[in-house]
Amino acid sequence: MKWKKVLVCVLVLSLIGGSGLLFADSINDRVRVWLNGRELKDGGYLINGTTYVPVREFDGAVQWDSRTGNVQVIKPNVHIFLFKGDTVFGNVNKGKLKFNVFSQIDSLNNEIYAVKVAIEDPAGNIKDIQSQVIRDPSKDNFWFRTYDFTYDFNTAGKYSVGFYIRTSANASFVKVAEKVITALD
May I ask which residue range the UniProt record assigns to the signal sequence (predicted)? Predict the structure, then answer.
């Protein structure tokens, strides 16, 4: 009699364990996701034929409201122009260059606290160029131009000028747009 109870328990546990593994397999189908030719770091998951991708992968500020269960992704349109004097440029030669960054921001449907422009070298080192608290956080479009600054493009490769937003005084800056500069030998 005792062995029948043991056999039934083993059978029930194996069925539960097997269905749990099947469920886990359907959730853990990882997929590689590419956005504009760049592979997203966290990728995504295929669940019941639908691909799910973390919203933080889309270069926007993510706000979670636990009270309402809502997630907001803040991603305005940002156009970045690089100026050497009055001349717009893209690629540069290795060496020091004095320039400024002009950013045009529109379609901003959320209030933000501050903006920042920074440059990242090919090795991943980031240097802040300029930041500013927004005087009228309810503006849906505005321009932001940095002062002239000198930067040393000391190695050949791709540099990224990023535009960042900060949603509140205690939030971190999040990159929402970038312009790539190639430094040539």
Answer: 1-24
